Amino acid sequence: MPAWAIVPAPVSVEAAEGTWFTLGRSTRILTPPGSAEAAAAGELLAGVLRRSTGLPLPVSAATAAAPGDAISLELTGDGRLGDEGYELAVTGETATLRASRPAGLSMGAQTLRQLLPPAVEATTLRPGPWRLPGGRVADRPRFAWRGAMLDVARHFFTVAEVKRFIDLLALYKLNVLHLHLTDDQGWRIAIHSRPRLATHGGSTQVGGGPGGHYTQRQYAEIVAYARDRYVTVVPEVDVPGHTNAALASYAELNCDGRARRRYTGTKVGFSSLCVEEQVTYRFLDEVLGELAALTPGPYLHVGGDEVQTLSDEQYAAFVERVQRIVRAHGKRAIGWQEITKAKLLPDTVAQYWDHRIGGDVVRATRQGTRLVLSPAERAYLDMKYDERTTLGLEWAGHVEVRDAYEWDPSTLLDGVGDDRVLGVESQLWSETLERIEDVEYMTFPRLPGIAEVGWSPAAGRRWDDYRRRLAAHGPRWSAMAVHYYRSPQVPWPD
Ligand code: IFG
Q: pTM here?
């Protein structure tokens, strides 16, 4: 791989030509004494490297002695590198990773991985040598929210498959996993006060398959796995629309008191909770309360998209009420851009997705609302690459690798500058994605481009440079058995 084919592009890179640090049987990984989090980051890195290199790479707390033949993780006492920033210095004897916070060490560890040969990503023993190119990297993210959404409602994905998805996000310094847990076709999270939501509402999926759901223990397992990789889980219970699975599970949630039949098609907009009935808000309080207790992250996503059966007044009143239920459980609400029709609390976030829905996104930002940007024509990775792609949809057009890369959050929406943008997020809606291989095919090679849009400085970001760096990642994905699309836009090496 070109020595510096790092994605996302760091703030600054300087190579020390001719200098290499070769990992060997005596190489150690040193972590700052007294920081269990930093030690865990060291262990995670060691685990990845040991699998393919076969090197012992013992992890231990650094001593006063100057490290030699070591990968040294260090925490600076000051905050100058920010929450996720880091500095990496590689000489002939050591690789030193410095950060202000353990999250920065984790982000820097991804860069260090990318500086090793692609075979390092394999899960089985590979021949070396395992050399790190000498030089220095100084880096920190442009936006705080760099995410990907996995729709586990249209088609269900197992805990192991979600963990695989998290591994791939972490590789590109993404730090949010938005789980679309409920929709018309499935309810995927057990709610103890409403067991039928999962047992009945989760018992099918698009196409009529068996569906599935996460027990609360399994959801907690996903959250913990993500947290170890500095990925925050944002769970979504989509309301008041996209609720047929709930309406099929509890008759009293329907305005006419009749439970709906389960739905296995792919139409949208036909369902809604009964916003005039108090039972709806008791239901939401129970559901969001249990979800908040299971979610260490600050956000609960309440959906709000594609409601075609309510008046604007009914919808706005509903949104204003739901965001307060979320706040009552100590969390902040995020919803799709339609929620800007309502009067939003200052910390409620709107997720922009569709330029066709005028809505009040820009007006809301003038009143303080911040945005997460998911423009469908750039970030919806369920869109086909081109007319030959069998998977995916095309209502937002075709999205090739270059389309997913060549846009900027500071110029996407007239009148909305960086200061109102929390970050970016890509979507894997799963109407047509039945297997995790299908998700990988639509995710790679487009997701690293979204990761670079969210992480790297706007200045200097250019497609011609990016496509060459990205090409070097093809062999890495092969080593990880990622089922990726070999886009003709990228000069793959092999
Ligand atoms: N829009 C719907 C999704 C999904 C998508 C498929 C949003 C916010 C089209 N809502 O995107 O449920 O069906 O591309």
A: 0.98
